[in-house]
Design brief:
The chain has 140 residues and is mainly alpha-helical. It contains seven helices and no strands. α1 runs antiparallel to α3 and α3 runs antiparallel to α5.
Length: 140
């Protein structure tokens, strides 16, 4: 039952329905982190295999930038999302909220750092931007 007299809920209102809450938890909290990591690693492997099948010499200088970008995105997602993903998965499997304690609060805040840090990871992987940032640091 929805209370239309309240302006907002303290949690998403669809969490009142167990099936929608479970779907949201799995699709939006648990699956994205492993999918992003595995797809990034798969893309790196695909590029290396494609170079080998075309009998081209793998030029690591050209691939290095892509590998650094994809691995830095994967590490960012793993470091900041993995604690929260593991906690959510444990709660879905039946772990009580009392067991998590203070670590749950830290994991919740770490989870939100990905969206804040992603632009910096992308910007630092571009050589033109890196040169401009270095120039700004030297002038400061």
């Amino acid at each position: 039952m929805h209370a239309f007299t309240q302006d907002w809920c303290s949690y998403p209102c669809y969490y009142n329905y167990a099936s929608l809450a479970l779907y949201d938890t799995i699709v939006n909290s648990i699956l994205p982190t492993p999918i992003i990591v595995f797809m990034n690693i798969g893309l790196i492997i695909r590029v290396i295999k494609q170079k080998q099948t075309l009998h081209r010499r793998l030029q690591w200088r050209k691939c290095r930038r892509m590998i650094v970008q994809l691995l830095s995105i994967s590490v960012l997602f793993l470091f900041f999302n993995l604690p929260m993903t593991v906690l959510v998965l444990a709660q879905v499997c039946g772990l009580e909220a009392d067991v998590i304690g203070q670590f749950g609060s830290y994991a919740y805040y770490l989870y939100h750092f990905v969206s804040l840090l992603m632009p910096f990871v992308c910007l630092t992987s571009l050589p033109e931007i890196r040169k401009k940032i270095k120039r700004l640091w030297v002038l400061s």
